[in-house]
Amino acid sequence: MELYIALKIIWALLLGVLLSGLAIMVGMDMGVGTLLRFVGRTDAERRTSLAIIGPHWDGNQVWFILGGGAIFAAFPTLYATSFSTFYVVMILLLFAMILRPVAFEYRSKVDARHWRASWDWAFLVSGALPMIIFGAAFGNVLQGVGFHFGWDGQYYQDESFVWYLLNPFALLCGVMALALAVYQGGAMLMIRGMGDLAARARRFAIGGGLLALVLFAIGGVWIRFIKGFAFTRSVDPGMPATPLGGPAVVMRAGAWLDNFHTHPLLWLLPALGACGMLGGPLALLARKPVLGWWLGALAWIGTIFTAGGAMFPFLMPSSTTPAESLTVWNASGSAYNLGWMLGFAVVFVPIIVTYTGWAFRVMKGKVNPATVVADDHFY
Q1: Does 239 reside within a domain?
Q2: 379 in helix, strand or coil?
Q3: H or E element, residue 244
Q4: Domains in the chain: how many in total?
Q5: Which end of the chain is more exposed for a tag (fewer CB within 10 A), N or C?
Q6: pLDDT tens across 82-111, in order?
Q7: C-beta atoms surrounding 136 within 10 Å
Q8: Is 126 part of any domain?
């Protein structure tokens, strides 16, 4: 039983790691796509921006697959319920992301201004919309999601997806996620871009980082007034993996701060995020974009683990039937499943990190617009 509980906790931490990798790597590419029309004033500058992330963007999608795969394998009840609850939102996300590879493939196939401008808009939509949805999902989960289970374990949705997507706190989280993506993308354009392109990217990145910091602070104050979730009594972490018949859960304002009051060391997580959001723009002002990029990664890690630290052990609380909220304890797979998955993760996650670092190291250096224009193989 102790091993099973340990595996549940390990996978909760791994889920945070995988979501952080997704936010950092995929968010960087989304940020470049969002900025494309603004930092690139000429076709050569826009093609250069795409060439900067072109060798990496499809490889970075592995973090998207890893995040979804981890939820599917480690927390199957969470996977089934969340993907059903946010079904329409997921469709919007997939349609937006489908635009990206098509835009990369077809943008430069026709040497016509309107043709390429249309695909530049596709990059903007496929960059900004997924990041807003990613952040809004965190905002919605923090407020609780309207669902419950029938006597037979069947899932029922109780609220419209429009509320999930458009409520003010979720939109704040979505804009913050987009701001961090713009920061991360701008830092990468500074690292590998030249001249005016890098200078414009610097301005947008600094603005994105500072906006994220302001929204992070507002969210920190706002969360005190949001009704969080808490158990009314101590629970057994080794409870059966079913949301039915669980312990009572209460909703009350400020409940998401309980873990921070109980374990003061958790305050280091939001401090980490805030330091990344403040230190990153300062590094870019000092023209140290590599340091700025890593501080942006630190901001993402601090933000995601702050949300996780506040919610633990809740994964997807139910606002309509709090006692049927999904948690690390009641939504996980079997001990056998978690053990095998951990073995694969220990082997393959370091491999992914290693080859990603190798790819960036091999393809480092400035991208010259003249080289891009002279070679039809570039984007």
Answers
A1: yes
A2: coil
A3: none
A4: 1
A5: N
A6: 888 788 788 888 888 888 888 888 888 888
A7: 26
A8: yes
